[in-house]
Design brief:
Layout lengths: L3 E2 L13 E3 L12 E3 L8 E6 L5 H18 L3 E7 L11 H11 L5 E3 L4 H5 L4 E2 L1 E5 L5 E5 L14 H13 L10 E4 L13
Parallel strand pairs: 4-5, 5-6
Antiparallel strand pairs: 1-10, 2-3, 4-8, 7-10, 8-9
């Protein structure tokens, strides 16, 4: 399988705004069909994961990611999953299949659909999974890999992301070395490939 690395968006970048439909609106107390960045203004930190249903790299980290999300959401960190894949060519990532996956695995966070791919473009997302951690002011403090493991290798544990989260929550900053995430490329609409992905 072809492997793509994340673009490593510049640290300090402000989280781009979004308003996207949720495949699992029951995943937070609002239960609304759309979720916006501003809905989570009260969160101590925000983790955004560009992900999808079919990618083996996402499947590899999925169980550990859900465990990490459940642990850190209890500490005031909000997690959000976003699928930006072209579902015409990859129907396993359709909105309906997203809902099925989120319910089957009991996702503890909203799983949002970026049909226009504008949000993925704004975040310069390149692969699945592509992970971004923003502080309380929504400045980017970590971007990169979940951990060093890969499919068909060791079990995922989320050590890189949890290290960044612990450092942020305890000190207000993240000083650790950061490594690119790695996975399947985002499946761009051929009419819509952004400059960072061409």
């Amino acid at each position: 399988m072809a492997v793509t690395e994340s673009t490593m968006l510049e640290l300090g970048h402000t989280a781009p705004d979004f308003s996207l439909p949720a495949a699992n609106p029951e995943a937070d107390e609002r239960g609304e069909e759309h979720r916006a960045l501003a809905d989570y203004d009260d969160a101590e930190a925000l983790v955004i994961v560009f992900m999808c249903n079919h990618c083996p790299y996402v499947k590899h980290i999925e169980a550990a990611l859900l465990d990490v999300a459940r642990t850190y959401q209890s500490r005031g960190v909000q997690f959000i999953g976003i699928n930006a894949n072209d579902t015409e060519r990859y129907p396993d990532d359709s909105f309906e299949r997203m809902a099925e996956r989120a319910h089957e695995k009991d996702y503890p966070f909203p799983y949002l659909y970026d049909a226009s791919q504008e949000v993925a473009t704004a975040y310069r997302a390149a692969c699945t999974p592509d992970i971004y951690l923003f502080d309380a002011d929504r400045a980017l403090v970590y971007r990169g890999r979940f951990d060093e493991t890969r499919p068909k290798g060791n079990e995922a544990h989320g050590g890189d992301l949890t290290h960044a989260l612990d450092e942020l929550l305890e000190t207000g900053t993240v000083t650790m070395e950061q490594h690119p995430s790695m996975g399947c490329n985002i499946k761009w609409d051929p009419e819509n490939v952004p400059p960072h992905a061409s």
